[in-house]
Write a structure and sequence with these properties.
Elements (H helix, E strand, L loop, with lengths): L2 H21 L8 H18 L2 H16 L5 H18 L12 H11 L4 H49 L8 H53 L3 H8 L13
Helix pairs in contact: 1-7, 2-6, 2-7, 3-6, 4-7, 4-8, 5-7, 6-7, 7-8
Subcellular location: Cell membrane
Family: Belongs to the MotA family.
InterPro entries: Flag_MotA_CS, MotA-like, MotA_ExbB_proton_chnl, MotA_N
């Protein structure tokens, strides 16, 4: 589980709610029509701009942020070094028997066992990276759209409230509460955009960069094993992908 994402969302929401409670009643910030305009309008605009399949894929990617642990570059380097040790000790064909849930790593082991050429490995890498970027870009684009639509509908809700407020100018006592309700839609839209939608899009983009890096390590490691399956040389070469302070010597 990605605790940083969970901690950020809960802390941000907790601070906002805490500030509201310290300054007055929390019930003042609850308004059904305002929520309907922001949530309903944002959802409607999202369905117009994106196919339902992309929306479902984006939210599936969002839930994976919490359910899946981020695999670091150093961990991938260590795995490739162990594969180099197996190939050196038992031969390249032994890599066909390696069991892993990582589809890309399994494909890399098969390429090594088949003694594939560097160009084939390079082409396979490009295809995998392009496919991964395309899948992840869908989720990022959907949440960016949500981050754009929600403040816009918050402003629309505020304009609706202001029009209704101006229609009650003959009743000065109702102007204050009416203005407060009108501003709530802007508050809802800004909160959803800046605390949830845009940060999730940024997190998905960061995960994409990390997974692309891991793919490059896997396939560079595969080429290195084919050229010279010395585990020490494989580690030295692949360690260049890892920041110096994060490098380890562990197996």
């Amino acid at each position: 589980m990605d605790f940083a994402t969970l901690l950020g969302l809960t802390t941000g929401l907790g601070l906002v709610v805490g500030a509201i409670i310290m300054g007055g009643s929390f019930l003042q910030f609850l308004d059904g029509p305002s929520a309907m305009i922001v949530l309903g309008g944002t959802t409607a605009a999202l369905c117009v701009s994106h196919p339902i399949e992309e929306v479902l894929q984006a939210f599936n990617a969002f839930f994976k942020i919490f359910s899946s642990r981020k695999v670091t570059a150093q961990e991938v380097v260590n795995v490739m070094v162990r594969i180099a040790e197996i190939s050196r000790r038992e031969g390249l064909l032994a890599l066909e028997n390696i069991r892993t849930d990582n589809v890309v790593l399994k494909k890399a082991c098969k390429l090594i066992a088949d003694s594939a050429g560097p160009q084939l490995i390079h082409d396979t890498l490009r295809i995998e990276i392009h496919s991964l970027k395309r899948r992840h870009q869908i989720g990022e684009t959907v949440f960016k759209s949500l981050g754009t639509f929600s403040p816009a509908f918050g402003l629309i809700g505020t304009l609706i409230g202001l029009v209704q407020m101006l229609g009650r100018l003959n009743d000065p006592k109702s102007l204050g509460p009416a203005m407060a309700v009108a501003l709530l839609t802007t508050f809802y839209g800004a909160l959803l955009s800046n605390l949830f939608f845009l940060p999730v899009a940024a997190k998905l983009r960061a995960r994409t960069y990390q997974e692309v890096l891991n793919l490059e390590i896997i396939f560079e490691g595969a080429r290195c094993i084919l050229q010279n399956n010395n585990p020490l040389l494989v580690r030295d070469k692949l360690s260049s992908f890892v920041p110096p302070k994060e490098r380890t010597v562990g197996r």
